[in-house]
DNA sequence: GAGGCGTGGCT
DNA sequence: TAGCCAAGCCT
């Protein structure tokens, strides 16, 4: 069943052209949008921005690109340095995958980010969104970029709904593909401008419709702002006492330490010993942590970031 | 396809 | 206050 489509082709065209003009006037000067940007810089920014607000990404990205300006430079870094540079961006497995990605770019593509969506998609840590985003934002090529911002903007302006479904549906993907302009530069600008609208105006909590350049075209507004039909069906994420919190606590301690951290130190940070053991095991399994001593005796074990104590504070 | 996976700001 | 939310990916 196709998603409801409340807009005429002429309205879609006006939506695209209005957003393009608005974007070119008001786009945020994000560092990875600078004229001297590189495909590698764009790819790094996209991976860092997966589930992390861009305001937190920007300073890390600047340091990162200064230190490792190319895939080849980054591919040779130590895991401990990579994880410390990643800092508190969250989901540190992304940092490991980004390095695997750099290594794959060197091995498969001679150190150059490929201008090919299928080859991008085959890289570690690169999914449908990131591959499409790199095609559009690094190469100016047509692609169908569907992130949480685009989903919300299309749900409102075209679908007339307050919010999209909790998970991406086939109907949504089909609608996004249908709406993407044919020409490379038009499609790339549409991807950037529809994302930007969702990020700075058409936000989830408090959309700024009074500042929206396309409010006069918006199907949700025309329908009288009906409330979210799926309210309550969105599962709330528990946090306190979870393995995720325990893993984050361990990673924070290891990032902050020059040398190995003893198990008894970690015991003081996380009192549930069984859960701590389980999480240390999963962190080692993930390649985020290395056990350096212990010889099987839990009480004598110590842990560090893989590859050594690190070269900086 | 549902669930796991960090972190911090905002309401 | 305690959820909700943020340029997803992988299994």
From TrEMBL:
Keywords, in A-Z order: 4Fe-4S, DNA damage, DNA repair, Glycosidase, Hydrolase, Iron, Iron-sulfur, Metal-binding
Pfam families in the cross-refs: EndIII_4Fe-2S, HHH, HhH-GPD
Record bears the keyword GTP-binding: no
Broad enzyme group: hydrolase
Domain named HhH-GPD: residues: 48-200
Annotated family: Belongs to the Nth/MutY family.
UniProt protein name: Adenine DNA glycosylase
Source species: Sanguibacter keddieii (strain ATCC 51767 / DSM 10542 / NCFB 3025 / ST-74)
């Amino acid at each position: 069943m196709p998603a409801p489509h409340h807009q005429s082709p002429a309205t879609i065209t006006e939506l695209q052209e209005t957003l393009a003009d608005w974007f070119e006037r008001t786009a945020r000067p994000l560092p990875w949008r600078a004229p001297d940007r590189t495909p590698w810089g764009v790819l790094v920014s996209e991976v860092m921005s997966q589930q992390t607000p861009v305001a937190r990404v920007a300073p890390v990205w600047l340091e990162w690109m200064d230190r490792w300006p190319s895939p080849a430079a980054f591919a040779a870094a130590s895991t401990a340095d990579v994880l410390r540079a990643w800092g508190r961006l969250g989901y540190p497995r992304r940092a490991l995958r980004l390095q695997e990605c750099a290594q794959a770019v060197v091995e498969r593509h001679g150190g150059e980010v490929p201008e090919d969506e299928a080859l991008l998609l085959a890289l570690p840590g690169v999914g449908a969104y990131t591959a499409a985003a790199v095609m559009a934002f690094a190469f100016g090529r047509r692609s169908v970029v569907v992130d949480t911002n685009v989903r919300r903007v299309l749900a409102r302006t075209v679908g007339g709904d307050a919010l999209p479904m909790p998970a991406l549906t086939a109907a949504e993907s089909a609608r996004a593909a249908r709406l993407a302009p044919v020409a490379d530069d038009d499609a790339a600008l549409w991807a950037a401008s529809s994302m930007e609208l969702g990020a700075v105006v058409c936000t989830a909590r408090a959309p700024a419709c009074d500042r929206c350049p396309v409010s006069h075209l918006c199907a949700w507004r025309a329908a009288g702002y009906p409330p979210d039909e799926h309210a309550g069906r969105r599962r709330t994420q528990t946090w306190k006492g979870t393995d995720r919190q325990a893993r984050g606590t361990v990673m924070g301690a290891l990032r902050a330490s020059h040398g190995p951290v003893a198990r008894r130190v970690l015991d003081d940070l996380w009192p549930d010993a069984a859960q701590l053991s389980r999480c240390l095991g999963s962190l080692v399994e993930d390649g985020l942590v290395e056990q350096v001593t212990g010889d099987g005796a839990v009480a004598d074990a110590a842990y560090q970031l893989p590859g050594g104590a690190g070269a900086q504070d």
